[in-house]
């Protein structure tokens, strides 16, 4: 199967362009697994950083991955509304061990009023030079960032007003 089954609990792993492990999220519950989209939920899970640091997330979150999109999103359920942390990276792959993607540093933090900030542009520029990203890759990353910003503006996909709430209710039901 090329995607995790609905109802399974998986690990999510992000890597850097050079193949080094970047971060691992433990125990994400798959709310919907199809060949195109993965929607998962988690709450206060352990996260392992490449430098050995381990920490816990602070709130429930709904994660969205798409097989064709160069980004993924994490909708965090907080008392003042839904906050998003979005990663620009490769589309996901599933290999029975974990859901995996390459993180290309550029992130977008989205606030409940749907305003947002692009983050880590300096880190992206540093890694682009250090790891010698080819022009075709830079183009994919740029297109992924633009499409992500368009989805935020249009309130499309995981940014639809009721998306996170709907999936969070399902997460609570299965928990």
From TrEMBL:
Span of domain DUF402: 18-156
SUPFAM superfamilies linked: FomD-like (SSF159234)
UniProt keyword Membrane present: no
Gene Ontology molecular function: hydrolase activity; metal ion binding
UniProt keyword annotations, A-Z: Hydrolase, Magnesium, Metal-binding
Superkingdom of the organism of origin: Bacteria
Alphabetical list of InterPro entries matching this protein: DUF402 (IPR007295), FomD-like_sf (IPR035930), Ntdp-like (IPR050212), SA1684 (IPR016882)
Family matches, as PANTHER family: PTHR39159, UPF0374 PROTEIN YGAC (PTHR39159:SF1)
Entry protein name: DUF402 domain-containing protein
Source organism phylogeny: Bacteria, Bacillati, Bacillota, Bacilli, Bacillales
